[in-house]
tRNA pseudouridine synthase
Amino acid sequence: QKAAQNLKPVVPIKFHISSRTDTGVHALCNSAHFDIQREPGKPAFSEKELLYGLNYHLRAEPIRILNVCRVASSFHARFSALSRTYIYRLLMGCTHHSQIPVFERDLCWAPAGGSLNIPAMQDAAQFLLGTHDFSTFRSLNSETPLRSPVRTILQVDIRPSPGFLSHHYEHRRLEFWELKFRGRSFLYRQVRRMVGSLVAVGQGKLTPRHIKELLEIKDPRAFPANTMAPPSGLFLKSVEY
């Protein structure tokens, strides 16, 4: 928003972001919209001018504009979205946090206890698909009374994934896995709670059927203590329109 103000618009700029994330969560790609009006007599910015101009003023920040396109006045970055896709990165093979590759620090979660039972996690993930009351899988905040707990999960995948430069340390036998979630929208900390419960299944602390039971309880206080995944492994991958 500050970068856009440096382009000297006539009316103050207000960004509308597609979605917010917790502190410590990353975004590979997010979307936003805004209106920009120039002084009388000046032509409208082209898409390329906005792309380069915004990035020029963002060069000191850990953010880059990847694409700019003109949209209809009826478009809204948040409410026009058809779905959002999140990726959560897990690292297996570490017996101590100091074994996490330095380039992966704060970009993945290495759960304690070694390997995970991936087939059990995949079985458990099937219970999350579809439309459910996800009350147990959301954290309480000031918006809780205002938002419906019913959400639709369109896709859950658990797949192996390459790590950053992992081919250079293959001898360490570290394994990266990605959990992919796609849905129209998500509740506060819902993805982190779903990931944490699936990891608990992989560790044998919960069974796949426990996921179904947690859904049926519909109570955030029933979520197992100390089970929510940390924010560091979570990435907003894309917003689909």
Q: What stands out?
A: The two ends are 22 Å apart (CA to CA).
